[in-house]
Amino acid sequence: MLDYIVVGLGLAGTAFCESLRKNNKQFIVFNDGSQTSSRVAGGLSNPVILKRFTLAWQADILMPIANVFYSELEVLLDQKLIHDVPVYRRFASLEEQNMWFEAADKKQLKDYLSSTLVRNGNTAVQAPYDFGSVLQARRVDTVLSLNSYSDFLQQNNILVSDSFEYDQLQINQGHVVYKSFKAKHIVFAEGFGLLKNPYFNYLPMQGSKGEYLTIRSEKLKENNAIKSSVFVIPLGNDLYKIGANYDSNLSSNVPTEKTKQELLKKLDALLDCDYEVVGHEAGIRPTVKDRKPLVGQHPKYKNIFVLNGFGSHGIMIGPWAADQLFSFIEKGIQISPDVDIKRYVGYVKNN
User: Fold this and answer.
1) What's the burial of 172, exposed, middle or buried (CB within 10 Å: 0-12/13-18/19+)?
2) What percent of the chain has pLDDT over 90?
3) CA-based, 20 to 30 A from 21: which of 12, 167, 269, 329?
4) How far apart are the C-alpha atoms of 48 and 136, rounded to whole Å?
5) pTM for the predicted model, two decimal places
6) Considering the domain boundaries, does residue 112 fall inside one?
């Protein structure tokens, strides 16, 4: 008898598996790699919504937890996962400069927005109104994190690289059975794949497709992440990740030429140097109607749980949300009402 079956190994699944491992729980993970949003994301842990100069939801609570989580993950996997990357917000006008400084004076933002104007010293970047600097931002190498953690689970024989067949799940009093595995609980952390899950597809998952480019430029020579109409995130070795868009066309997670050209048009308005596109990828973010995560227990089956809906903030939200779910299951501590799926009890039909 296992303690848990976990379905999905993106940021959500990884965070929950770490809660299990640290608490000596026995578990098995199923992952087929079909959901790519965690892997293609830019990886920034950014406490501020830079379009409106407002604090991201619960950032003051989430960021310290996330910082500890990824620092411990670095030690476990013996990999460099965290990179301190200053984030510069490019100003489009003097009015935006003034809005920034007004925001930086607010009590809840003073620890995250610098009140000192950053002058543009890079001739390859077009920024006539200079930059504002975000404090405490970091970049997590999500690809290396997820690949290394997947390898770690494989080495310990607790990862099954296969699709989960819902019709093979048997729900019993006090445990579930899936093929040859028996467990006390099962947690679904499938990202946008939740839409196909017969136990939780009543939840209002909307999804948002994001596409990203990778460029190489020997002349850009930028060590800071720059936010304009697109993000430019340095990856090292003259490589930069460019993104992202928000598309409601969710028919596939295949990148499109149309979006590529849209991103390049925005990039050309920012850069004044040569570059080469060397990569183009896409993923569908698991976004929710109220922009809050989906965490909790199935309304009918008490040993089935969900951990999902992180949208574009999975790096920052994941460790906290995983702890919320683990503490509820193992200690009976109630999940925050903001994220508990009980808020959607009216959506339940025959699930």
Assistant:
1) exposed
2) 85
3) 167
4) 10
5) 0.93
6) yes
